[in-house]
Amino acid sequence: MDITTNPLSAAQRPAQGGNAPAAITSDFTTFLKMLTTQLQNQDPLNPLDSTDFALQLATFSGVEQQVQTNSLITGLSSQLGFMNLAQLSGWIGKEARTTADVHFDGSPVTLFPEPAAAADQAVLVIRDMAGSVLARETLPLSGGAYQWLGADATGSPLPKGRYSLTVESSRGDAVIATDPVASFAPIEEARRDGNSVLLILKGGVEVAEKDVLALRDG
Predict the structure, then answer these.
(1) Which residues pair with 122 in a beta bridge?
(2) What is the DSSP code (8-state) at residue 173?
(3) What does residue 45 show for φ and ψ, rounded to 5 degrees?
(4) CB 3.0 to 4.6 Å from 112: which of 6, 21, 67, 182, for a disulfide?
(5) Which residues of 178-215 are buried (b: 16+ CB within 10 A; e: fewer)?
(6) How many Å apart are CA 175 and CA 161, to the nearest integer?
């Protein structure tokens, strides 16, 4: 019975990408079966060339090491993720500075808008979660802390809830930049989301821990 001396065809080689560990493990098992079958069925009068056999054993060893390495990396990634989560638990109760949506509860919110350097006018644009513009307020070009009172275009208080705030920088009649506005909000929860960690701010606003710009005591 003739058995090919090439244990892994192009279609059988470990795939690249997100499914690589499963593909490598599958190829490792397939390779072992093929090698065993080959040894059991080789012609005793014309045995497998020692060079070919050595190459197959080297391939076998390489696939096995890759499977073990991937398993080790997966375990380390999981451990590091839980370490990060444990460390981030110390953030709960602090205030995070982010450019996420703002939860308005009726009290003024301190914003940190940064108009474009070339702008001759800056406007705070307030939108609801449907994207509708509720109000526009002129901002100082110098930037710095700004107290947003949570009013609509008529000056009446907006209902409590979540709002999207941006600073629109203009020069002449042209808008030259539209940027999110940073603000502080209390951190109420930290939880895992796949390989990342999500922080839950007051009002249920979610933000990735990597997007936190600064921390301060609540």
Answers:
(1) 139, 169
(2) T
(3) -85, -15
(4) 182
(5) eeebbbbbebeebeeeeeebebbbbbebebebeebeee
(6) 28
Backbone angles phi, psi at 12, to 5 degrees: -95, -15
By the 10 Å C-beta count (0-12 exposed, 13-18 middle, 19+ buried), 25 is classed as middle
> Phi, psi (5° rounding) for residue 2?
-90, 130
What is the amino acid identity at position 68?
Answer: Q
Distance between CA 3 and CA 9 in Å, rounded? 13
Of 14-18, 63-67, 121-125, 151-155, which range is least confident? Answer: 14-18
Strands (E), the chain: 95-98, 102-104, 109-112, 121-127, 133-139, 146-148, 161-171, 174-180, 182-193, 196-201, 206-208, 214-216
DSSP 8-state secondary structure symbol assigned to residue 14: P
Token pair belonging to 89: 């638990």
Q: Which residues contact 82 (CB under 8 A, 6 or more apart)?
A: 192
Q: Classify residue 195 as left (phi > 0), alpha (psi -120 to 50) or beta.
A: alpha
**What phi and psi values does residue 138 have, to the nearest 5 degrees?**
-70, 135
Residue 14: inside a domain: no
Parent domain of 44: 20-88
pTM score, whole prediction: 0.61
pLDDT of residue 206 exceeding 80: yes
Q: What is the CA radius of gyration of the chain?
A: 30
Mean pLDDT computed over 52-56: 63
Q: At 154, give phi and psi (nearest 5°).
A: -95, -5
Number of structural domains (the chain) is 3
The answer to whether residue 12 sits within a structural domain is no
